[in-house]
C-alpha cells in the first residue's frame, strides 16, 4: 500500500485533530464534572438500595431529586407487598386466608398472577405461598433455630399455588393459615419500577441496586468508552472478595445465594432459600446469578433455578429466550461454576484488578 | 500516515502522550487522600470525617446505636446493638464507593471520593 501524503489544509486538520484528541484524553478522568458518577444510598425492603446516575451533565439537583423519587417508589412497593404488616395489601390477603377474598390493586393482583405463572412453569420450585415456612424459619430473628421436623411438615399442606384463587382483583387463599410471601419477586419488581421512573425523567445511564437485585438501563453513547456496565458477583465464601464479573447492557441481574441469609447450627448451614416441597433449605448449589430482560424476571428466576438445582436449573435458563445465568456449586472443598451458553467466554473469574 | 509527520510532529505527539499518561497517574495520587467518610441516618448526613484522620464516634440510628471507627485510612462499624450485626461483620473498608450498611438502624457509612471511570455494580 502506498503511503498517503497529506498536504495543505488536510495536513493542518490532521495535526489539529491529534492535538485536540490528546488534550481530551486526560481531562476525561479529572475534570470536576467527571470525577464520579452520582450516587445515593438508602435502606428499604430489609436491605440496602443505591441509585447511580452515570450521566455527567444531569446536574446535582436533578440527580438528587430523581434518586429521592426512586426511594419513595421503592417504599411504596414495599408498603403494598410486605407481609410483615397486616394492613398491607398482601397482609390483608393473608389475614383473611380461609375466610374471605380481598380486593387488591391492579399492581398487586398483577404481581400475584405473574408469581403463579412462574410457579406453574417451574412445577412449584418457585412458590409465593411459602409464607408459613418463612415465618417458622424466621431467618431475620436474633438467633434463628432449626424448627422441628413435625412443625415443618404440619405446614406443608398450606404451601400450594393451586390454593390461591385470583378473580380479577379479588384474591382468596383457600385454607386458613396460608400466607403469601413475595420475597422472591417484589425486590426485582421494585427495581423495574425505579428504572421506569428514571427513564421517564430522561436518564439514560443508570443502575439501581436493591440488595444485589440490579436494574441496568444503558443507552450507549459515543462519549463513553464503556457502553456497558461491569457486574461483579460477590464471592459466596470470602467476605469482601469478588467471585467474577461480566458485562451487561440494559437488563436485570439477580443473585440467590446460600450465604445471604443463613445461620450455622451443629456445623450445618441453614439458609433462606427453601424448597416449597420439603420446607428445608435447598442444598444443591451455592448461588445462582440470572441476567434477564428485567429485574423482576431475574429475581424470580434466580430463586427458581436455585431450588431446581444445577442440572434442571441450568436447563430452565437455557430454554428461556434472553435469559443467561451462572451457577456456583461446591466440588469437594472448592467452588466450581457453570455458565449458560450465552455467557460462555464472557464471564471472568476474580475481581479483574 | 505516520510517514507524513515531521520530527517536530512526532515530538509533539510524544509530549502529549507522555503528558497524558503522567496526568493519569498524578490524578490518582492527588485524589486519593481527599476521601471522606459520610454517615447517613435515614438519608440525612449526620457525620462527615476525613478518611485519613483517626476517629471514633457513636451514631444514633433508627433503632439503636452504632460505633464507627476510622483508623489507618480505613473505616468500620465496630459496635452495634442491631440483631444480625451485618454492619460489624462487613469489617474494614477503604475504597471510594465502599459502603457499610445497617438496615435496621437505617444507617449507611459511605466512603465518598473519586471512584474512577468504571461503570460497575455488585450482585450477590
Structure overview:
The complex is a heterodimer of chains A (353) and B (124). Chain A has 353 residues and is α+β, with helices and mostly antiparallel strands. Chain A contains nine helices and 16 strands. Chain A has helices at 8-30, 60-81, 89-95, 106-121, 131-137, 149-155, 186-200, 295-308, 310-319, and strands at 38-44, 47-53, 102-103, 164-167, 170-173, 205-210, 213-218, 229-234, 242-248, 251-257, 262-265, 268-271, 287-292, 324-331, 334-339, 348-349. With 124 residues, chain B is α+β, with helices and mostly antiparallel strands. Chain B has two domains: 1-30; 36-112, Sandwich (mini-chromosome maintenance (MCM) complex, domain 2). In chain B, 23% of the residues lie in helices and 38% in strands. Chain B has two helices and eight strands, in the order αβββββαβββ. Chain B has helices at 7-31, 86-89; strands spanning 36-41, 44-50, 55-60, 65-71, 74-80, 99-102, 107-112, 120-123. In chain B, the strands form two sheets. In chain B, strands 2-1-7-6 form a four-stranded antiparallel beta sheet, with no helix packed on it. Chain B has a three-stranded antiparallel beta sheet with strand order 3-4-5. In chain B, a hairpin with a 2-residue loop joins strand 1 and strand 2 (44-50). The longest helix of chain B has 25 residues, at 7-31. Chain B is elongated, with a radius of gyration of 21 Å. The chains are: A alpha+beta (353), B alpha+beta (124). At the A-B interface, helix 1, strand 1, strand 2, strand 6 and strand 7 of A face helix 1 and strand 8 of B.
Q: What composes the largest sheet of chain B?
A: 4 strands, antiparallel
User: N-to-C SSE series of chain B?
Assistant: HEEEEEHEEE
Coarse morphology of chain B = elongated
Say which CATH homologous superfamily of the largest domain in chain B is assigned.
N-utilization substance G protein NusG, insert domain
Strand order of the largest sheet of chain A: 1-2-6-7-10-13-14-15
Total number of β-strand segments of chain B? 8
Mean pLDDT of chain A: 90
What structural category arises from helix and sheet content of chain A? alpha+beta
For the sheet with most strands of chain A, the description reads: 8 strands, antiparallel
Uncertain runs of chain A are 26-34
CA-based gyration radius of chain A: 24 Å
Helix content of chain B: 10-25%
What kind of assembly state do the chains in view correspond to?
heterodimer
Query: In total, how many beta strands of chain A?
Result: 16
Strand order of the largest sheet of chain B: 2-1-7-6
What is the overall number of helices of chain A? Answer: 9
What's the pLDDT, averaged over the residues of chain B? Answer: 85
Amino acid at each position: 500500500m502506498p503511503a498517503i501524503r497529506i498536504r495543505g489544509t488536510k495536513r493542518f486538520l490532521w495535526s489539529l485533530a491529534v492535538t485536540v484528541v490528546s488534550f481530551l484524553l486526560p481531562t476525561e478522568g479529572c475534570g470536576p464534572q467527571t470525577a464520579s458518577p452520582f450516587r445515593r444510598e438508602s435502606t428499604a425492603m430489609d436491605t440496602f438500595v443505591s441509585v447511580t446516575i452515570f450521566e455527567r451533565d444531569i446536574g446535582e439537583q436533578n440527580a438528587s431529586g430523581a434518586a429521592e423519587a426512586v426511594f419513595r417508589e421503592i417504599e411504596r412497593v414495599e408498603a403494598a407487598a410486605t407481609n410483615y404488616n397486616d394492613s398491607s395489601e398482601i397482609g390483608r390477603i393473608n389475614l383473611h386466608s380461609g375466610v374471605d377474598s380481598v380486593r387488591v390493586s391492579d399492581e398487586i393482583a398483577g404481581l400475584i398472577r405473574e408469581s403463579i405463572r412462574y410457579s406453574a412453569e417451574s412445577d412449584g420450585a418457585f412458590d409465593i405461598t411459602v409464607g408459613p415456612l418463612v415465618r417458622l424459619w424466621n431467618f431475620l430473628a436474633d438467633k434463628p433455630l432449626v424448627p422441628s421436623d413435625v412443625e415443618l411438615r404440619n405446614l406443608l399442606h398450606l404451601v400450594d399455588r393451586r390454593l390461591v384463587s385470583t378473580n380479577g382483583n379479588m384474591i382468596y387463599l383457600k385454607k386458613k393459615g396460608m400466607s403469601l410471601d413475595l420475597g422472591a419477586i417484589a425486590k426485582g419488581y421494585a427495581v423495574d419500577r425505579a428504572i421506569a421512573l428514571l427513564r421517564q425523567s430522561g436518564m439514560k445511564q443508570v443502575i439501581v441496586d436493591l440488595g444485589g437485585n440490579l436494574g441496568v438501563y444503558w443507552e450507549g453513547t459515543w462519549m463513553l468508552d464503556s457502553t456497558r456496565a461491569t457486574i461483579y458477583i460477590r464471592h459466596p465464601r470470602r467476605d469482601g472478595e469478588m467471585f467474577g464479573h461480566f458485562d451487561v447492557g440494559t437488563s436485570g441481574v439477580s443473585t440467590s445465594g446460600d450465604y445471604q441469609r443463613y445461620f450455622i447450627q451443629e456445623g450445618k448451614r441453614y439458609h433462606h432459600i427453601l424448597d416449597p416441597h420439603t420446607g428445608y433449605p435447598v442444598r444443591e448449589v451455592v448461588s445462582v446469578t440470572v441476567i434477564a430482560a428485567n429485574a423482576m424476571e431475574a429475581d424470580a428466576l434466580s430463586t427458581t433455578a436455585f431450588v431446581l438445582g444445577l442440572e434442571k436449573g441450568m436447563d430452565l435458563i437455557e430454554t428461556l429466550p434472553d435469559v443467561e445465568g451462572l451457577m456456583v456449586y461446591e466440588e469437594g472443598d472448592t467452588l466450581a461454576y457453570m455458565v449458560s451458553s450465552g455467557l460462555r467466554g464472557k464471564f471472568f473469574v476474580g475481581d479483574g484488578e | 500516515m505516520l510517514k507524513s509527520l515531521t520530527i517536530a510532529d512526532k515530538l509533539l505527539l510524544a509530549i502529549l502522550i507522555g503528558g497524558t499518561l503522567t496526568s493519569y497517574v498524578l490524578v490518582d495520587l492527588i485524589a486519593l487522600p481527599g476521601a471522606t467518610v459520610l454517615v447517613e441516618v435515614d438519608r440525612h448526613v449526620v457525620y462527615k470525617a476525613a478518611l485519613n484522620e483517626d476517629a471514633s464516634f457513636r451514631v444514633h440510628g433508627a433503632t439503636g446505636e452504632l460505633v464507627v471507627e476510622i483508623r489507618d485510612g480505613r473505616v468500620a462499624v465496630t459496635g452495634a446493638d442491631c440483631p444480625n450485626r451485618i454492619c460489624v461483620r462487613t469489617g474494614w473498608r477503604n475504597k471510594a464507593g465502599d459502603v457499610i450498611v445497617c438496615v435496621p438502624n437505617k444507617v449507611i457509612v459511605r466512603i465518598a471520593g473519586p471512584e474512577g471511570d468504571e461503570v460497575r455494580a455488585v450482585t450477590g
